[in-house]
Every structure is written in C-alpha cells, then in structure tokens.
C-alpha cells in the first residue's frame, strides 16, 4: 500500500526510463485529447453515460438520437495506429531508418498490420493530411495481412505519388500546390529509402 | 453492470469537467457555448451554471456537480476553482498509487481489490484528518500574517472605502460575467451596496438581501444592459388593481384575506328561504364592505396590499373611496415588506366594525412604474430595520443574459456575506517544547510585517514616505491597510501610524461623503470589545509573546488595540509541558483579502511544503505534498496565456525568495479576493474527494427499488 509501505517500496522503485517517460507522455497527451473531445461533445448536448467502453475503457457518450459513441475508438487513433507504415508515411520512413541502423533483414510488421482500426480517419494520416485538405482523397487501400510489408509500402507510396501528381496538375490554389509538392517529396524520399533497404 | 469505483474513473470524469471549465476561468477566460438537447443555447462563463446544464448520467459526475452546487449555495463563488483543484488532487493521487496499479484491474485478485479499497479509505481518512487538524493550523499560524484587510481601520471603527470594494467586486465579476459588461455590473453592485447599507448595518442585512433577493430585483428584457439602474424603495411585481394617485403622507395596510364578508363562514350553514332573504343578505354585504372601506379611508389608508384576489365589490368601493389596491401579491413579497416595516397583518373582526386599525404603516409614496410593457408598483418605504430598501432594475437584451447577471449579483452578495463574517479556526496542536522551532521566526516576522502600513486609496501616495514606512518602492496602484491589531506588540506602532496619517486615511470623505461605509464592528471584533478578544485571539498572542511557552487561554488577557485607553496588562502563565495536544481556537477576521492571481495558492503551497519538511508523520507528509502540488494547478491555468516575464514560472520564482526571507508578497495585479472564500473551496474539495474515494463499487439499476426492501449496503450507488 502506497502510504503505509512507502518505505519498503521506495527502495525498489526506480525512476522511469526515457522510453517509459515517452510512453507516459504520449498516454497523457492522448488522455488530454480525449477529455477535450468529450468536453466538446458534452457542450453540444451529448449525455455522459455511466458505462465505459469495452475496448479502451473510456466513458461512453450518448447523442440525441440515443446512439452510443466512444470518443477514443471512433475518433482518435489507437495508440499503435500511427506506427502502422501502411497508413503513415512517417512511420514507414522511421521504420526504414531503424532497419538501416539495426541492419535487420525482415522487419516484423505482421503483428502491427493486424491492429488496424475498422474505420481509420484519413485526416490523421500525416502523410496524406496535406493533400486531403482541398478534396476528399481516396481511402487508404485495404491491406492483405500477410503481404510482403515492403512491397505493400511501395505500392501505397506509388499510388499516393500518382494521385498527388494528378491533383497537382489540376490544382489551382497555391496552398494546395505547396502541400501536394510536400507530399510528393515525402513519398519520393520514402520510396528511395525503401529501395535502399531492398538493395 | 458493476464498475469498480476508483480514482481512474473519477479522474476521467474530473478531467472532462476540467476541460470544459478551464476555458472560462479567470479574467482571460472566454464564454462557453452549451447546447441543451432541447435546442436551447447557453452562453456563459459561470461555472456553476455550465455544470448544471450538462447532461450527466455518470454517478461520480453527479456527485461532483452536487458538491459544487451545494458549495455555491453557501458561498456563491469558486465552482471552476473547485473542479480544477479536484482534478489536480486526483491526478496527484493517481501518481502516488500508480506503482501499485500497474497490474490491470481485471487481473486483480479479490485480496488485492480489498487491499485497494482499504487503501482508499485510509487515504480519505488521512485527508479529512489533515483538513480538520493541520490546515486550520497552517492558516492561523503562517498565512494569517500575509492577509490584507478590505477595511481601513481607524481608532474607533472600521470603514470600507469604495475603491477596495470595487477591487474585490471587479475581480469577482470579471471571472463570471462577459467582458463587455463586467465593469458595469460591478459598479452597479458597488452603488447598490453603498445605497443600502447604513452605518449600523451588520451582517443581518446580508441575510435579508440573500433571503429576499428575488424581491429586490426586477428583470427587464429588451433593453441594453447599460439601462440597468437602482431605484429607491421597493418594486412590487404586480400592477395596481385600482390606482388612485395620492399625494402627501399615506398609510398602507396589508390584508391576507378577502375583505368582503362571505355569505357564511366555514363550518356554519347559511339557510335561505326566499329570494328576498338572498337580496337582503347581498345588500348587507355591500353595505358592510362600503363601511369597511370608509373606515380605512378615515384612517388615512390610501393603499391596500392584499395577498389574495379581492372581489369586484371591494375594488369598486375602493375606487369610490380613493384607495389604491394591489392584490395577488406573493407571500414572499408580503413577508419581506413586513420584515422591513415590521407591522402585522390586518385582521377584520367579525363583530364590531369601528375598531382601531393599528396595523398600518406610513409610506413615502406609491406610484405606478412602467418598464418596457410591464407595469409595476413602486413603493417608497420607511424602513425600521438597518436596511435601506433599494431595488435593482436589471436590463438585458435577452432573458438568459439578465438571468446570468442576476445570479452573478446574488453570488456576489453571498460572497460578501461570507467575507464580512469572522471565521473560526479550531485545531489541535501537538507541542513539544524542544521542537518548537517554528515560533521564533513567527515572532520576528510579525514585528516586521506590522511596520508596513499601506493605506487604501489611489490618489494618496507621497505622504507616506514621511512616516518612515519601509518598502516605499512597493507602492503600487492600490494599497491596503494591514490589520494585526490582535498582537499586543504591534498596537503601539499601529497607534502612532494611525494618528499621523488619520486625516489622509479616508480621502473619500472629501470627495464623496456617501461612499464610505463606516461600521461599528460587530460584537466579536477585536477593535473595541475587550472580553470577546480573549475568546478569539488567545493562541496567536501567546506565541508571539514568548516562543517557548504554551499558554492555555483561560489564563490570558490581551491588550486592547489602539485608542480606547483601557489597556489591560498582559498576563500569562507558563506551563511546563513537554508534549501536550492543545486545542486552540482562533479566527480569520472579517474582511481578510489577498491579491488575486494565485497568491493564496502560492502561499499555501509554500507553507505546506515547509510543513511537510518538518513533519514527522508519514500520512501528513504525503497529504500536504499532495495538496501543495495540486494547489499550483490553479494559478497555472490562470497564467496560461501569459508569456515571458508574466508567465507563471517567473511569477513563482520571484515570489519564492520574498517568502523565504519573510518579506511581504509583492503582487502587481489589481484585484482582491476573499480568503474565506478560498478556504471554503479548499475544504469543500477535500470533502468531495473523500466522498468519491470511499466509493467501492458502482452498481447500475434500471429503476429505484421500492421502499419496502432494505438498502443492500453502503457501497450501492443508484441513479
């Protein structure tokens, strides 16, 4: 017990490592985001129920049509979603770099691919967010769970690249063009790193 | 479905509420728009209102909101601070117990769950003990020397000058009312306060205003807020049934029953045998009513206030006699009028008509008041109690805004009521003669702090340099008078300073004579009354006199403070005790204020951390650290928008050295807040927290159990 056995526990307690601190920080930020979103919904007239979500443990909300809504599951990404390279170009880049450093042969991506959320929101994919502000982009392609991860990533990047170039050609706004160029550059860099990985 | 009640659930709920409330806290806070399911929109900065507008089915959320509402009903202030502080406390508790909760709850065994529940009960017990024993002690011993007073005290009486009240009310309203209106509303409140209070007014006036606030204000929609005003007398929320304008002195009579005699009284039978009998009875009734009216007129009663609807016959004869009638008044209005004018209702004797009507009262005037399209009765009352009746006409473009201003004014009155009362502190002190190292610094500091005299008001600054006051460079925009008149050491110094600067202390005398509320201090104040001093201020004086001696209060007599001439000798008896627990009584005097912007939180944080360093008991150390860290959350949110020099870390770092060297706090913010209000928020939050922590299990049921079956156990929560 924390108060009574504090002397005993203190000797065995160590401060969290940097990785753990990062995880704690990320969790806290996620919790803050959830609270803010829930507060927004409450102000819009949603009702806070006394039950929690079975998946994530967040308190459930109910809207005026009596539909139950979980803020964390249906709106925020899960914790691991942003690490999924199939949906996130940044994740693909960082993964490629990690493999370069560790000089591993096959990145263990199988487990992460299974953790896809049912309806991922396109805006939260960092690589795709810029291009999607002007128009609705195509939804991210559904990945077969046992495909070769690098090939999947390449296909996804090439698709995004072609789409972005098509959009760039038809775009009239300066803002959009700049963002599309940024997207193309990111995709090209990712492809480059992937090609280096393969060789 | 049963859910384990835990800090995690409570923290989730509290964080959501904090996310809502933190947007509108403080002077930089913005309006929050809340849409109700019915489609109504609420735009407000008032924390209590927002919380009550939310749809919350979660039991812990409902407990929290219920605690906030009951706190607001008593004190009128602090809903947002409550939520923020509660949230930080829960975060702190979770951090303390996080290492125990690494195992997910579904895997906990029964023993582990039971241990967790006992742990929370233990923690909540420790919190309560801390609040009752240690918090009062710290408030009394350490924080009290930093308190400022809203009163400016002279030798015989205390006065409240307008500028200090304005500072207090400005700070109150700028966190509650929209930015374009808060200055106006606080001016309105100040005007109302000074118009209603007489020099003998005491705290019973606040009770009267708080009880009858609904009768003392009139809402008018469709006019701009700047059209709000204060008018003399009372406005009744009804129109005249008969209006006969009259000049000069007139009397008013209040009736609670129908004047016209009825055919029969209850319990008796009225038997009619013929038409003629019926007509005779009717004629008799008419004649009787006519004579009653004539009699009223002969007594110079020109206004009849009735709490029931009078019949047409009465109205007709009243019109003939020239008596104005207002009927269907609410019983609260009638009782309010009776409280102010103090006369009793008029009862008509059945038998003899020519009786003396003694139950009338004089009024100054009575006329019709038209506000927008509604008509009211405007009465000029001659008050017999210490309250000068005035009415506030609150205008606003929409009903919602007027209601918000009304509740803000109501809350301000409650806050002032709490501020102008002494607040008793009781604590048990364990004293060890060897370890009583806390006293010497206390002694020194009290000496030092009493030499600072800063006088209340804007225009006067220069003359103080002649009185030898230290820290002249600290003269800010507004200055306040510190009262430590209970300390015998300081009375001599206080006297000299006051006598020198007395003519300058109330500059508003020359400017506006009606802007000062001179009050004779109530019975338990320490300025004039000797005997009461003993009961209230024993322990503080004992410690400052002698660092090593503990005194029981029966043996102690206190010097009177300045000016009275009857100075009692200071006697004390030394008790040689090594480790005794003394129950000490003290109080926070009325009118104690601190500068806004987190001064109270920073001070209490500092002294709690110091206390934790010197304390022996483990629970007290943990609880004081927990509370101290949670307290800083409030000024952090207040200073969130500020950057650089004004940001919270900078302010905190500047304040710490002044506290460590025991200098007074410098605060550049203009604005005051009531210490008692802050203290109440603190205690309310701790009690709410103990309530939440003692929940073991939340069981949801579909409907309320019928009354016949017994409740299952303490830990069943229904909604």
UniProtKB/TrEMBL annotation, chain A:
Coiled coil: none
Superkingdom, taxonomy of origin: Eukaryota
Region of interest (Disordered), ranges: 95-125
A Pfam family matched in the record: Auto_anti-p27
Protein name: Sjoegren syndrome/scleroderma autoantigen 1
Annotated InterPro entries: SSSCA1, UPF0148_domain
Source organism of this protein record: Octodon degus
Molecular function terms, GO-annotated: identical protein binding
TrEMBL record, chain B:
Name of the protein in question: Bardet-Biedl syndrome 10 protein
Gene symbol of the encoding locus: Bbs10
PANTHER family tied to this protein: BARDET-BIEDL SYNDROME 10 PROTEIN (PTHR14667)
Domain of life per record: Eukaryota
Gene Ontology biological-process entries: chaperone-mediated protein complex assembly
Recorded GO MF terms: ATP binding
Species whose genome carries this gene: Octodon degus
Record-linked Pfam families: Cpn60_TCP1
